[in-house]
What we know:
Blueprint: E1 6-8, E2 11-13, E3 17-19, H1 28-37, E4 42-48, H2 49-64, H3 73-76, H4 86-100, E5 105-110, H5 114-126, E6 131-135, H6 147-162, E7 169-173, H7 180-189, E8 194-197, E9 205-206, E10 213-214, H8 225-235, E11 242-245, H9 252-261, E12 265-268, H10 270-275, H11 278-293, H12 299-302, H13 322-328
Parallel strand pairs: 3-12, 4-5, 5-6, 6-7, 7-8, 8-11, 11-12
Antiparallel strand pairs: 1-2, 9-10
GO biological process, one term: 'de novo' UMP biosynthetic process
Cofactor: FMN
Protein name: Dihydroorotate dehydrogenase (Fumarate)
Amino acid sequence: MVDLTTDYLGLKLANPLVPSASPLSRDVDSARRLEDAGASALVMYSLFEEKIEAEEHQMERFFYNQSIGHGESDSFHPMPDNIQTYQEQYLEHLQQLKSTLAIPVIASLNGTSLSGWVEYGKQLQQAGADALELNIYHLAANSDESGDAVEQRYLDILQELKGQVSVPIVMKLSSQFSSPIHFAKRLEAAGADGIALFNRFYQPDIDLETLEVVPKLELSSSAEALLRIRWTALLYGRTKLSLAVTGGFHQTPDVLKALLAGADVVHLCSVLLKHGTGRLSEILAEMEQWLAEHEYESVNQLKGSVSQQHAIDPSAYERANYVQVLDSYSSPAGVLR
């Protein structure tokens, strides 16, 4: 029998399949179904500091700033003592997941201020989170902000929070850093326990009728997995950080390639939203079957065996095949060129 266990952030997991932050964790029953399907841990949907702030401002305007022409207006709308805030609901749900599930629960935090990252990170630890995933959704659109300043923003958040919590911290990174391996080493030196490659920044669209910029959510596809696999292969052996991949992992071959490249865990999201929680158990069974057929005794034996350090042709992960790939393409039959 193949040993599927893997180590991630110091946690011993039953297998490498971990559902990432998604609506599936908003419901205790769906979270339980993920566990029953074989999920070895669960990343909870994100706690957003901006939603906390927006709710606070809305409550303040509603209860204290109404201009209705009466000095007694506050008495018309007394502050209810049974309203549960967005933040309280999140923390309570985290506690419910912890009391219901036997697998580790990783809380995802999306902050906007340094004080917010620290304060809410502490609260998530107090509520029982086994680890924290920092979802730093920062678009470097300021022409006066250098690349080094962008990196320093991440490092400042990490160092401040690391000084206040004891649970492992994983940094969810975008693919747009100029030197990902160097930055990963800086994060490791600053105290990070792991990194997740890569965050998917949703792209706005333009409505051709109204000429408005509108939000657009597109689920991932397997084509996106290759970028994550490549950088995992380049990072493996060059850092002691735990390595997670996220974005584009839909099929069993996607998962196996990520493990061969050196990933400790593979996050699943879009595939579960598209096909249901049962798809996780199918991927897990197919993965175990492939390992057995190829005479692997464990996931650890597989892990990193086709990273850049162990690949037959290490240069294949860099520029070596660039020209060959371009020259290899030909249009489908019948297409005039």
